[in-house]
Amino acid sequence: MVHGDAHVRSDRVFTIPNLLSVLRLAGVPLFLWLLLGPHEDVWAIVVLALAAISDWLDGKLARWLNQTSRLGTLLDPAADRLYILATAFAFVVRGILPWWFFALILLRDAAVSLCLPLLRRAGYDTPEVIYLGKAATFCLLYALPILLLAQIGPGTAMIAGPIGYGFAFWGLLMHVWSGALYVFQSLNAVRRPIRG
Fold it and tell me: How far apart are CA 110 and CA 89, in angstroms?
């Protein structure tokens, strides 16, 4: 999530929300190892749950403690993207998701990332996260632990499987759609550069 604009973004680095984002990023390799090494799916779900809690908490703390920072607005969505990419990759390796699911996420994120230097060169700042992008991230971040829960046994698979796949494919659709909107808006902006 992007920290609210109602609070002034500072250049502070050492804040509680930033610490939570760094810890969330540090959990990615542990999460991948649990999924692809010993296949400890229950512990992987715990890591994902802690990441989701810290994602919610760092945004709340940034506003409550007035610790919204420029670094935080970069770290927070980067952690979300990294968890989504890492989990989708691991799920492809384990046969939980098809390869094209990961490919579409990767292509969308690459296309949006390529727009950023073009925007800066035209004099624009990084675009704000749109609601559709937030909804896509929400769906994907909730789909992944539910899909993992479905791997634990046939009992959980019957209930968690359809819910997880529903969230995953709806989230993927919104993710690609929001990426197309970012690219379209960026190309329009680049055609009208800000004169310095």
Answer: 15
pLDDT, one tens digit per residue, over 122-137 is 888 877 778 999 899 8
Minimal CA–CA distance to 71: which of 57, 86, 58? Answer: 58
CA distance 84 to 67: 26
Distance of alpha carbon 98 from alpha carbon 115, whole angstroms:
27
pLDDT per residue over 10-63, tens digit each? Answer: 677 788 888 888 898 999 999 999 999 999 998 998 998 888 888 888 778 878
**CB atoms closer than 10 angstroms to residue 69:** 21
Alpha carbons within 13 angstroms on the beta-carbon side of residue 56 total 8
User: Which pairs with CB-CB distance under 8 Å and at least 24 residues apart come from 95-104?
Assistant: 96/147, 96/148, 96/151, 97/147, 97/168, 101/168, 101/172, 104/172, 104/175, 104/176
